[in-house]
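Async update (no meeting this week)

Hi team, since we skipped the sync, here's where things stand on the single-chain job. The sequence we agreed to prioritize is pasted below, unchanged from the tracker. I ran it this morning and attached the output directly underneath so nobody has to dig for it. Comments welcome in thread, and please keep replies under the output.
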Amino acid sequence: MTSQEPLYLIDGSAYIYRAYHAIGPLTNPGGLPTHAVYGFTTILLRVIREKSPRFLAVVFDAKGPNFRHQLYPQYKANRPTMPEDLSCQIPYIKEVVAAYNIPSLEREGFEADDLIAAAVRRLAGPEQPVVVVSGDKDLLQLVGDHVTLWDPMSDKVLDVEGVTGKYQVPPRQLLDYFALVGDSSDNVPGVPGVGPKTAARLIGSFGDLDQLYERIEEVTPPKLRGKLLVHRQEALLSRDLIRLADELEVPARPEDYAHAAPDQEKLRQLFQFLDFTRLIKSELSSEKLVADRFRLVTDPARLVELAQQWRGEATLVIDSETTSLDPLQADLVGISLCSGAPGEGAKREAWYLPIGHRADGKPVAGQLPLARVREILTPLLADSGTLKLGHNLKFDLQVLRRHGFPLEPPLADTMIASYLIDPSRRSHKLDDLAEELLQRRLTSFAEVTGGDKRPDAFAHVALEAAADYSCEDVVATLLLWEQLQPKLAELELTELFDRVEMVLLPILARMERIGIMVDRELLVELAEEFGRELARLEEKIQQLAGEPFNTNSPRQLEEILFDKLKLPRGRKTKGKTAYSTDIKELERLAAYHDLPATVIAQRNLSKLKSTYVDKLGTLISPSDGRIHTSFNQTVTATGRLSSSNPNLQNIPIRTPEGRRLRAAFIAAPGHLFLAADYSQIDLRVLAHYAQDPVLLEAFGRGEDIHTRTAAEIFRVNPAMVTPQMRRVAKTINFGIIYGMSAFGLAEQLHCSRKEAQTFIDRYFELYRGVREFMGSIVEQARRDGYVCTLLKRRRLLPEISAANKMRREFAERTAINTPIQGTAADIIKLAAIACDGELRAAGLKSEALLQIHDELIFEVPVQELEPVSELVRGAMEGVMELAVPLLVNLKSGPNLAEIEG
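Output:
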């Protein structure tokens, strides 16, 4: 059988390496490197999408030596062994090829080039064009009347004319040409001193290598003739090494290379494991949810009937459609609802209640009045017997409450459920979870709005389209809940979900709504002050450098530091093309010259100004003069909350500029801030886990743990411990929790590695139980594949037994740290819940505003300061019973700067 359709032969091994180097490191949630797999897959898909090949094969090098090593043991000897983070990806690359139902070729003792050459020899002809997909020059030997080479990464196609123009010899003479030139990358010797121009002239004149040596006396100049004679054996050997073994047996019919449709299920499982969310969306043909059970409700009487139907349901799923992603500014456009118990999601109808749709600047006819919808739904949303389920439910809760709807417990959020089950998952978005877990493709926002870029785009969507879109979301949420709820129970996470995360959710919503007041005038003053200081630092940097240069250019800074000032070079950049000027290197160099320290000061101040001072003013709400951050429950792997827009957890504390900025966050008139900070919470949790007698005794007696550690490692009486000694001990106490090595400790303390190791050894002499705990938790993680907090929050550690030492040791440090840091995160969440309950029960006006690491910050009317302080201390110190007492430090003041430290 013959075919006019080209056969595409992909040089798989070459593209594996090119993909590995072209893409920055990627890993799946379990820590498996995936960047080579991803890059290779995108190259493969480009061939498929652009060429739609009927006949296709991917060809791989076989593992181990090939016949060329027998000819020349030094063949490719200068190449480093395959990196471990690449070799572990090869099986998954082959699985991708197999899942796409693409034939593959591989033969022990031969390279991919040989198999490609064999296939070309057997198949290429007038009736069967062949396209070799590669960037490897050795394969240009195969280019002919019916064979071209295409490199999709550069999008270059080479035919006979193109090859001849590039090398000045036709493809049929390339073997002899390459034999003369050699190939340093493969350690093919060639003839030393014979470059491309000389080789092209020689082969052009003599035709091939054999003729060249038969007529060697005709070669001029004599010096060149001498080189050729001396290195004749190398030239002939090089030709044997470069010659492609095209006589191998390979499938000889075009139909042997036909590829069928991809195996969707295999691809889905593989892409889910590899965490290729984008490819899941683009490559897999997921079904849409059937819209024939989606209902648009425009009659209030029908809504009354539905409310009667929903009353008594175990679960009510709810989703709000709005004019904005800011829940504190968004207007309500519509509400979708779905009811049902787990197991009934696919059978249930869903309803959309349009409220705020507009067309041509006017409300669309046929919508439900907001007041009437609120009247009918309020009893349902306030019912304590019905679970209110949503995805990213905090957003809906805030929007609905702003519009007068209650949304009372019990609550359930599938986004948070997904996070608890797998906190390392890259995305907990509804669309992504529906694709991965339900194999359902949801309509995107861009699709339903037709790409409308207006902030209130959804308000302009037609009612029927809006109904289908919003009903999809609630049904998908219910279907997800059917999968996630039993998984929470299986992993013993139900109590953490119900009693911590879901109780905390409305508290965080309240904190976000209240916000924190900011002194706008002080921000303006700081912007001017920091601007002047940045100009002064810039001028000082130029003076210290002795010439003007762009301080934001790493290359120019490198030249100043190392070429002009002759400071000692350190690490190279990742690409090994320059010497690093990052913060660690600048801190090291600051001991030699004032310029690096000044650059550090300028960078820190510039970041503070751009990230906070300049931005905060734009975030102040005109309605209340406050900034409203967002608290995120599904971001960190340890369970700690994070905040965004703005991030109020990372404002520097120790620098004067950071303290000046903190002074701009002020309590309302007649109020003070109260900061309640857990004392050494991580170390107390460590003492509980380790059951170390010295730690237990020290905390039980109220000793200062850093002083106790300092006295031991410096071998002095506790009364003789200096502030500097205590700072060293504090670094060690907390560094041990994070698995700090002697090298890391030496860098932190600016001491020798030997001295740092002595400190660590003395630490473990004092706290023997800590060493035992660290060993046992790592062994447990190796056995179970995960670690847990005291509240059973878990973190998977698939790398704990990895062959790669760096990744294994990182997993071991994570195993030690997660139970401690994660339990501390659970405790501060419990504290926020307990304090909120106590404040509400006491009828006090004080409010929690922020949670920053191990600290809660309240805004307290002056007259409530004393009772609230007592209430908060009692609540926080009593949230969890550990083997050592929890201790809370309280401090009050008119701004954040005065309650720190």
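Quick observations from my side:
Residues 7-257 form a domain with the Rossmann fold fold (CATH 3.40.50.1010).
The radius of gyration is 34 Å.
Reply here if anything looks off.
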